[in-house]
Amino acid sequence: MNRFFTAMISLVMLLLVDAATAHETGLRQLTIDGTSDSPLIVVALYYPTLAPSQAVAMGPFVAHVAIQGPPEAGIKGLIVPSHGTGGSEVAHSSLAEALARDGYLVAALRHPGDNWQDRSLPKDPGGAFFSQRPRQVTRVIDALLSDPQWRDRIARDASGPRIGAVGHSAGGYTVLALAGGEPDPFRIASHCSAEAREDPIFCSMGSRERAPGTAAPVSGPHTSLTDARVRAVVALAPLGVVFTARSLGDIRIPVALYEAEDDHFLVPRYHAEWVAHNIPEVQMHRVPNAWHFAFVDTPTRAVASEDGDVRADPSGFDRGAFLKQLAQDIPDFFDRVSPEERLTIEKAQAHRSAFPAHVRAEERSQIASIYVSTARSANSNPTLKRTFSGKLHLLPVAVHVKHLCACGA
Length: 409
Prior knowledge:
Elements: H1 2-20, E1 24-32, E2 41-49, E3 54-58, E4 61-67, E5 78-82, H2 93-101, E6 105-110, H3 128-146, E7 156-157, E8 160-161, E9 163-168, H4 170-179, H5 185-195, H6 200-209, E10 230-236, H7 245-249, E11 255-260, H8 272-278, E12 283-287, E13 304-305, E14 308-309, H9 319-336, H10 339-353, H11 361-380, H12 382-388, H13 394-404
Parallel strand pairs: 1-4, 5-6, 5-9, 9-10, 10-11, 11-12
Antiparallel strand pairs: 1-2, 2-6, 3-4, 7-8, 13-14
Helix pairs in contact: 1-11, 2-9, 3-4, 10-11, 11-12
């Protein structure tokens, strides 16, 4: 009976893993029309597909995607990545691909006025850099939730569509502003007046581009940039010194924060650690021996930045291995913060406590883990979800039957 039980569980899990990992990554371009006061936005859409992917050169980056592959009918949610200042919508393609393979629609925008082709927004003397970046993400969310091709594919629950955001550097600022952080550009002037020698790259950028280092405040107290539809954010080496402590303390959605330990571009103690110190229950991750661009895919050729070549890493740091781990951890974070995932874990805990007393603790943990893995796979695949709906509770029963059987091994 033990062998039969183990074989049956293994077969179920094998089928689930095969089905859950069948996703590849599709890629399409979306253009959001501009208006008199809102410029056109170019968006790279990554999404789950069954079409085979291939390596595709995207400027200095390489994506592994199926161009125009047909999208899957059901999508876990929408994730919007925000690149750093002067960056590109494909600079974090490995992360976008991982999120798409995990079942998400990923809308990576090219920030108008702050990308590799156009650096006009940071030069704006009125501080539009701080207000426009979050609002551009909000425009992308608006467009996709009204797009007949995508709106009905994005999973919803009682609280509405499932939406998250992830950003690097200035993109980290952007997603934290969406979460409720309020910028006060006077904080930058004060910071750079006192700490320019300790945070030299950030503070010197203002002298070259006007903002972010010397931007004027945006019409006095800043109007809210929060987008309440965004339910969780990940900030990678964020620009953080600009946020008020009060506004960070008021953030109530899940936040994962990554700090590059040897970041010279945005020195952590003024940026990432300021954010971590003020956000309640932030999930903080310190990346040892990492520089600022550790979170960016390694370009195939030299790409200059204020901190040297974007390709460069400190001795002993394996960016490829780190990005591979990040491509597992960030989808897991967004999975865990979804209401459905929290319910799955709560049910697993309840089933674990309901096992008969003679079932060993390690077996309880093993079956609870099988429950969570099975449920996660079913949640991410519409066909599996229909097949296993209402049946996952039978796993603990199977354990009980195994222990009642005297058939031996």
